[in-house]
Each structure stands twice: as structure tokens, then as C-alpha cells.
Design a protein that fits this description.
The chain is mostly helical and about 130 residues long. The protein is built from five helices and no strands. The longest helix has about 55 residues. The relative contact order is 0.03.
Amino acid sequence: MFSLSTKRKLRRWFYSRSVLILLLILIVLISTPVIDMYRNYSESRELLYDSKERMETLVEQGERLERDIEYLESDLGKEAELRKRFGTGREGELMAVVMDFEYKKKIDLETPEEGFWQDIKERIKGIFGFTSR
């Protein structure tokens, strides 16, 4: 074992500012790669979860597309798609168009109403024979 004076000298040397600064620098140098590795691990884990979610959505989309292809290859699917896209029907079939009252209101609101100055402008054009009505 060390003598008491040797222990004091070692303790004094170990707790000196220069040794503490050196230890701090070593800790920083050692911890930097560890922190970088943790960041890389976190990013790769996040990318893994994102890619799994993307894979699941692509698989679902592929299954849905396969169902749609099977449906459209059948006669019923072809007929339904023709009716939907082109508004056609079978020979001898009659079609009825049902218009919603709210839809008519929306159309009426979209048409611009003529204002006072527009009316005067149209009357002046009518006087000179440039009517647009």
C-alpha cells in the first residue's frame, strides 16, 4: 500500500485542473462516436418503420388493383365502366336524369348577375348596333 504522503500527492495530482481537463477532453472524444452511432441507429430505425408502412400500402394498393383488373375483365365490370364513363345504356333501355334542387341553385349562383353599369353599357351598345344579346 501507499503511504499517506504518497496518497496525498496522487490525490492532489489526480484532482489537478490539467488532469480534469484532460479527462473531460477524453470523455468528449469517446462520447462523440457513441452519440453519432445512436443517431444513425435512430434514423435507420425510423427509415425501417417508414419503409414497412410504405410496403404495406403498396401491397394493399397492388391487391386492390388486382381486384379491379379481375372485375374489369368480367362482362359485368366492362358494362359498369362503360355506363360510368360514357353514360351509355343497353339497347332499348331508357335513361332518366334526376336533377337536385340544390344543384340548380348552385348553377344559378355561378351565373353572374348583370349590374347597373353593365346594363347601361349594354343599352349603349344596343343604340349603336353592337348588341351582344
